[in-house]
Amino acid sequence: MEAVKVSSKYQVCIPKEIRKSMGITAGTSLQIVSYKDRIELIPVSSIENLRGIAKGIDTTVERG
């Protein structure tokens, strides 16, 4: 776990190792979520990247 500081402009720098492992590049959109006592940054996936994530799902379930 790495620590970062908040700048005077309320900005933080995501460490290089984390950027590389998550595929975050300049211009990547992130959602920010505040939950209890923490802040989470979640990369926003494009609809094209989500294609096929439900492969094999049972679609025979009746819907009301």
Largest sheet: 2 strands, antiparallel
Structural class: alpha+beta
Mean pLDDT: 88
The number of helical elements comes to: 1
SSE succession: HEE
Shape: elongated
- What's the arrangement of strands in the largest beta sheet? 1-2
By oligomeric state, this entry counts as single chain
Give a brief rundown of this model.
The chain has 64 residues and is of the alpha+beta class.
Description:
The chain has 64 residues and is α+β, with helices and mostly antiparallel strands. Helices cover 11% and strands 19% of the residues. It contains one helix and two strands. A two-stranded antiparallel sheet has the order 1-2.
Helices and strands, with pairings:
Layout: H1 16-22, E1 30-35, E2 38-43
Antiparallel strand pairs: 1-2
What attributes does this structure have?
single chain, about 60 residues, alpha+beta, 1 helix, about 10% helix, elongated
